[in-house]
Amino acid sequence: MIHLNQTHDSEFIDSSVEFAGTGNVLYVEDGAKLRNSRLRFLGNNAVIHIRTSPFYLRLLATVFHESVFYLGPGASFTSEARFLPTERKHVIIGSDAMFSSRVVFRTADPHLIYSASNHQRINPSASIWVGDHVWLGEDTLLLKGARVGSGSILAARALVTKSIPSNSTAAGVPARIVGKGIFWSRPSVHAYTLAQTEESSVFSHDDFIYTRDPNVLDIGELEGQLDLAASGHDRAVWCQRLDQMTSKSRFFI
Q1: What's 114's DSSP letter?
Q2: Which UniProt keywords apply (predicted)?
Q3: Residue 24 lies in a domain
Q4: Is residue 250 in some structural domain?
Q5: How far apart are CA 197 and CA 11, in angstroms?
Q6: 219-229 per-position pLDDT tens digit
């Protein structure tokens, strides 16, 4: 199933889609602008679900059997980001994500590692979840099991493997929390005049401060629903339901 319409606002420039499997679903919201993107399905019953944005989307996404790549609305990219959801795990990204250069997501290592004492596998794959309004710095690498709460910043070259609370800054290899109780906004200061710098010294509202409330989503429950999905169509319906879950606090950690 393919939803990739040429509308007045949409663009599909130097980009391609490849299907090598059955039962897959590609949904690109009307008005999305893809540039230098490559979307590949290398398995069956997988989903790529891409929401629209006023910015160009630069995606190198490869999904395998029964995996989902979900990109929420309003994302921006400095250069192509790479997404690799595999082994039936998923990459889920909320709204208003800001990607710097060369950001990478991988849900698997991908080769098998075992304990020498009992021969049991010790590197299971795991999904990656990123909340709303997250800034992903240059060369950020998010690996299996990474979870990033809304409003947070991942510093350049951060290696993220665990949970990052909302409104935090994480840096390092592996990433650790280096700042709490922060938020960020999109304007770039590179060409600021003195007047603009002075004007931006205070931010006047709380739009990007996230708190826990009854609308916080249960990520484990949501992923359990994906695990129960029997087809690519069922996973696409799950993505459509997530589109409707728009509360500010939904991805609070």
Answers
A1: B
A2: Acyltransferase, Transferase
A3: yes
A4: no
A5: 35
A6: 999 999 999 99
